Amino acid sequence: xxxxxxxxxxxxxxxxxxxxxxxxxxxxxEAGADLVLVDRNRDGADATASAVSGxxxxxxxxxxxxxxxxxxxxxxxxxxxxxxxxxxxxxxxxDRSTIDTAKTTxxxxxxxxxxKAAGLDMVVGGAIAISSIPELQRMAATHLSxxxxxxxxxxxxxxSNPNLPxxxxxxxxxxxxxxxxxxxxxxxxxEEDTSRIKMLERRAEQILHMPGSA
Length: 214
What we know:
Blueprint: E1 10-14, H1 19-30, E2 34-38, H2 42-53, E3 59-62, H3 69-82, E4 88-91, H4 96-99, H5 102-117, E5 123-125, H6 133-142, E6 146-149, E7 152-155, H7 164-192, H8 194-208
Parallel strand pairs: 1-2, 1-4, 2-3, 5-6
Antiparallel strand pairs: 6-7
């Protein structure tokens, strides 16, 4: 049993052959999602697909070059034909130096154009900082509904608010409090059964040493 039920959902994960991409794909499969695994490392992606199949989920592997817009368009044509939908998209192969470039914003703007034409919301998120505001404004000039950072979602209209930089700074404080509360909550859960576990361990030890025990 998982905390999140993603049955019937479809996720596209790039960088899926190893590391965080592989771990993310397996976690999504465990929660019930089908996967499209994208990586130039075919053998590694096939290994991830095998792990996904172990949870009874479907997985297809594509060796798409995610730096090529035409290749990405072809990828999603195949995804649409195979599954007819995408609920999650994770790119695990880009580091900060790649994300903070005009080239990446160009990709996002192209997606915004397509979302606008299809009448869909356009939402972006991640570690958005004050330095991200000009790029967000560039996206909003085409189409942007909301943006999210540090567990806080902002309406795109907030990009014209002069207090936005201060608001983004406060998201750091919010996430800090959120993480501390999370740590405290799970810490209590971890310890709440300690005494009962010790009692059962003692009982199990006695049972194992009883005459006739296997």
